[in-house]
Write a structure and sequence with these properties.
By secondary structure, the chain is α/β, with parallel strands linked by helices. 26% of the residues lie in helices and 25% in strands. It folds into 2 domains: 89 residues, Dihydrofolate Reductase, subunit A; 94 residues, 3-Layer(aba) Sandwich (Dihydrofolate Reductase, subunit A), CATH 3.40.430.
Length: 201
Amino acid sequence: MANVVASVDGSAVVGGRTAELSSEADRHLFHLLRSLADVVLVGANTVRVEGYGPARGAGGPPIAVVSRSLELDWDSRLFTEASAPTIVVTCTAADAARRRRAEEAGEVIVAGEDHVEIDRAVAELGRRGVAVVLCEGGPCLLGEVVAAGHLDELCTTVAPLAVGGAGPRVAMGAGAGTPVPLRLVSALEEHDHLFLRYLRG
């Protein structure tokens, strides 16, 4: 499952962040979807740019951060205030000292040699009892999820803004060009924002 927000012309960000695309209803949906997930999967750059903290509430799902470089702020709320240990998904090629720091800060999954392989990451999460993975991006991570064939549900908020420019789409990357058929199962509107839910076709 993935949850994304985009402008009407397909931009995933305004000024490098998603905040201006969101709305009160979108934020409510954001937390609702988190409550249905066993883990939230997110890319390291999104964690840095959006200032990620732990999932809200004592029963919130753990956050799993995908990072090859392990250039993360280990003193941030995401690692110091999470009710469930934050998971770091990385690869064998990651810096050894940073990997040790990751192990001190949370739980580490090694999924790949030179880069993080989404298939291996999802399989390892499954072995740990995870049934529902909610991907919150960013664009490169979601592109990899799509390319790996793991997108079975997509919730898209379409914001009533035309952004222009050359900003990222919600899914990008070398493998994101393979079409995945989806069918629309729900379409809602509030204050000109559209809330669309798709299932794999």
